[in-house]
Design brief:
CATH class: Mainly Alpha
Radius of gyration: 25 Å
Number of helices: 13
Shape: globular
Structural class: mainly alpha
Distance between the termini: 44 Å
Order of helices and strands: HHHHHHHHHHHHH
Helix content: over 70%
CATH architecture: Orthogonal Bundle
Amino acid sequence: MYKLNKKKNNMSLEKQEAKAAFIFIIPFFIGFLMFGIAPFLYALFISFVDFNDFKALNTLKWAGLDNYIAIFKDSIALSAYFKSFYYTIIYVPLLTIVGFFAAVLLNRAFYWKSFSRSLFLMPYVANIVAISLVFSMLFDPFGGFVNSLLNVIGIENPPLWFAGSKTAILTTAIVAAWANFPFQMVVYLAALQGVSKDLYEAAEIDGATKIQQLFKITLPIVSPTSFFLVITATIGSFQNFTIFNALTRGGPGTSSRVSSLNIYEEAFSLNHYSYSAAQAILLFLIIMVISAIQWRVQKKWVHY
């Protein structure tokens, strides 16, 4: 009888926990439906109709795949996708490497360790507009601190940075990595603190160098963390509207007009709502394909 009552109490406790979990999930689920699923479904719908100027919704005509076909005939739109991919190739490795080595540095024992950790977090909490103003002055091609320093050390024709058609995306990626690496650093720091010190002690006894310990112990153990950060950084890199709008506005010309900027311009400057929605859906599909490839490839280098 005692065992039966205990089993009933356990079942009752499980039901209570499940009920409590359901209650906590409901607000998020409602918000996700309202601000995630509903806008996506609406964008998907208008991408298949002719809503490329102001008109009543009841007058919309079915356009089928016309908006999607138009993308592949638009050199600026196609170029924007390639520019986004180019930005991702620069930004994600740079962000991951800087975040990892910052975590390795802060994982060591040194004076003012807590203060240094707080200092490293400052870029992540800084306002993006303030960051853009500071770096615009630093990288000013005519009299900025960086180019003035390069002139002092003998470089006569320093890069134009944000004002150069070949350097605008690269410079923006550097600034974006600087602004976002603290998140990578914190996650890596948590992973590094979970690595057993016994492994390093055993490796030292066997004569392993610090570099060998890094590649044979540290990187394999934190590889699940690396995968998480790489895939989230990749997805985030395509959502790059704010940083480009603040620093380059797609210029000079259209040299840094990435897909997020192009979608915004098509929708809110030219009122091509269906066309911009089709571009956004295509961008979503591109991100899905890249993420799927990353999931397949991670089996070869992630160690759980």
